[in-house]
């Protein structure tokens, strides 16, 4: 299998044709220094000067060179590096128009990276329209971040509305060098505590505990963390407020300042560490200060992450600066004796890594923890993940990703019941639209009154329905003191009722109280892609934060107005460590009749002696 890789970074576009089984690169090319006078195309080590003022021109030049370089080769799939996957994309994903739109919606979170990635996606899909295109997301490796690392201390309603959380970046690189380090140390990655330092035009540090990312320096966007080529890294939020005032509220100017004019560029006038080192050696104080600030920020994160993990087994340097700058490694790697990591200066000065020799140990012989320089290979990692997804889908045609929504307790009401609870002629106030077209939450809430306790402020969903229906979780059942059957929405025969209390009065329902059967909304096109029909029942592999499991008996609901989405309740989400926007994979299917027969068989099976 030959996978063509497109990796569009903030100042470089890389491309390669790779056989993932053996790692052979049939074609290797890149365009460096986009937007300045050093811009050039490097094709199999041969440099060709270019004049490309932006990513658009560079991408056109790259694709023109690709067409010639790939003559005689078959391309079986294209793997695309995409920097930001948001809450939805935590695994490699087959690219569709829907996925492209979802990626486009994330552009404000990574304005330097997502527009070039979208341009590459569009150009490559036009050039190879009949083969799979797979997106591999930088943020995916960090989906394992625990809640204590993931969350910011902001109001919950704002966090939920805007999907504010720490996503982390450079995940493909961090994953690759961590696995390479484990192989070099001849140790299962699940036994290691690693700190990986991806130091390039963009920079980040990640704490990897037993194979899982548990802390990382970049946050919701690539602006947070270390000082970088053109980004400032950590800033006091008050500085942002002051800048907004000084710029008269010009948000575009502020974005340009923070993404393109800060960091090394702001401190020295150049984002090129090689030039900064040269000028620093000549006595340039601005460049000397830039190096000191940068190395201090990296050392600070390494110390913090060592404390978080309670020690380390190795520190890894990778990417352009990390692999090539002995000076930066020297300044960062000193005085880590307290961690058991002791730098050997001679080994550090002589260290050279490349794809043929990817690892160099620069730690002293007496060092307990290792200091390693590792050549990252994001293209190979993307090729391997692309091939794995294609092979999985070949084995199971329905192995497609399904976005998951966590459905908290809520109520659907008839207009008559609304008026009894809120007053004659009352109309509900729309709060915000929901994912399913035409559905929305409203400002109004009611109180559920059970035999034991009551639950206040239960949200109503609109529009008004023909039947009253109250959906709660198993935990709510025990709290209220009720017994709600697990039912599909609308299947309300022989269900219990409950009392609702509103500002204008109470209503006691005679039925309509259920625990909703987990289900998937699909359009007819979605159902055709998944090879299922309305009322089929499927199994879905799902999970996050290291708590993966498979949900069985998931009901398929098909309607032209439905948008693809699986709904689980809060108990189910907590069991799997899920958040809304996580992904599931359909792994098996059976018709509703088959499920019924299976349940009857299981129910009627003879009792066994105990």
Work out the radius of gyration. Answer: 27 Å
Specify the oligomeric state. Answer: single chain
CATH architecture group name of the largest domain = 2-Layer Sandwich
Number of domains: 3
User: How many distinct helices?
Assistant: 20
How many E-type strands? 29
CATH superfamily of the largest domain: ATPase, nucleotide binding domain
Query: Terminal Cα separation, in Å?
Result: 53 Å
Could you say what the CATH topology of the largest domain is called? Nucleotidyltransferase, domain 5
Beta-strand proportion: 25-35%
The helix fraction, in percent, is: 25-40%
Category by helix and strand content: alpha/beta
Low-confidence stretches: 591-610
Gross morphology: globular
Query: What does the largest sheet look like?
Result: 9 strands, mixed
Quote the average pLDDT: 87
CATH class wording of the largest domain: Alpha Beta
């Amino acid at each position: 299998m030959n996978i063509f890789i497109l990796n569009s970074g903030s100042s470089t576009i890389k491309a390669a044709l790779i056989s993932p089984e053996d790692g052979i690169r049939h074609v290797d090319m890149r365009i460096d220094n986009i937007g300045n006078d050093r811009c050039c195309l490097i094709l199999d080590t041969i440099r060709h000067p270019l004049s490309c003022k932006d990513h658009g021109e560079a991408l056109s030049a790259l694709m023109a060179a690709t067409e010639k370089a790939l003559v005689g080769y078959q391309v079986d799939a294209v793997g695309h590096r995409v920097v930001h996957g948001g809450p939805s994309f935590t695994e490699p994903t087959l690219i569709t128009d829907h996925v492209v739109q979802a990626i486009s919606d994330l552009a404000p979170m990574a304005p330097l990276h997502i527009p070039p990635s979208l341009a590459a996606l569009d150009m490559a899909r036009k050039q190879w329209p009949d083969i799979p295109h797979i997106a591999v997301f930088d943020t995916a490796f960090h989906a394992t971040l625990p809640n204590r690392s993931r969350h910011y201390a902001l109001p919950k309603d704002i966090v939920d509305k805007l999907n504010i959380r720490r996503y982390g970046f450079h995940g493909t690189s961090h994953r690759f060098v961590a696995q390479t380090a484990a192989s070099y140390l001849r140790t299962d990655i699940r036994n290691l505590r690693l700190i990986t330092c991806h130091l390039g035009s963009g920079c980040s540090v990640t704490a990897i505990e037993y194979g899982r990312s548990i802390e990382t320096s970049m946050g919701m966007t690539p602006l947070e963390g270390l000082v970088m080529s053109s980004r400032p890294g950590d800033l006091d939020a008050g500085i942002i407020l002051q800048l907004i005032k000084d710029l008269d509220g010009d948000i575009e100017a502020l974005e340009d300042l923070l993404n393109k004019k800060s960091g090394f560029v702001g401190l020295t006038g150049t984002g090129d560490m090689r030039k900064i080192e040269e000028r620093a050696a000549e006595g340039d104080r601005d460049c000397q200060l830039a190096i000191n600030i940068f190395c201090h920020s990296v050392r600070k994160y390494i110390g913090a992450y060592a404390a978080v993990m309670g020690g380390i087994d190795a520190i890894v340097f990778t990417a352009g600066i990390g692999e090539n700058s002995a000076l930066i490694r020297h300044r960062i790697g000193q005085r880590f004796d307290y961690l058991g990591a002791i730098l050997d200066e001679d080994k550090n000065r002589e260290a050279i890594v490349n794809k043929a020799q990817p690892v160099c140990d620069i730690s002293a012989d007496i060092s307990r923890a290792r200091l390693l320089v590792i050549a990252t290979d994001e293209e190979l990692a993307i090729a391997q993940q692309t091939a794995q997804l294609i092979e999985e889908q070949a084995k199971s045609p329905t192995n497609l990703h399904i976005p998951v929504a966590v459905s908290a307790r809520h109520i659907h009401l008839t207009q008559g019941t609304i008026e009894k609870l809120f007053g004659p002629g009352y109309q509900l106030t729309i709060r915000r639209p929901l994912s399913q077209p035409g559905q929305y939450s409203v400002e109004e809430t009611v109180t559920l009154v059970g035999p034991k306790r009551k639950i206040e402020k239960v949200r109503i969903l609109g529009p008004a329905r023909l039947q009253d229906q109250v959906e709660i979780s198993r935990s709510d059942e025990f709290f209220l003191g009720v017994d709600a059957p697990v039912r599909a929405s609308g299947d309300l025969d022989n269900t219990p009722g409950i009392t609702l209390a509103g500002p204008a009065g109470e209503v006691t329902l005679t039925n309509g109280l259920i625990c909703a059967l987990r289900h998937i909304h699909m359009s007819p096109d979605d159902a055709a892609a998944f090879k299922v029909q309305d009322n089929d029942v499927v199994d879905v592999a799902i999970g996050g934060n290291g708590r993966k499991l498979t949900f069985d008996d998931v009901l398929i609901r098909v309607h032209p107005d439905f948008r693809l989405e699986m709904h689980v309740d809060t108990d189910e989400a907590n069991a799997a460590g899920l958040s809304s926007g996580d992904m599931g994979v359909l792994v098996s299917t059976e018709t509703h009749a088959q499920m019924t027969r299976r349940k009857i068989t299981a129910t009627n099976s003879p009792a066994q002696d105990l």
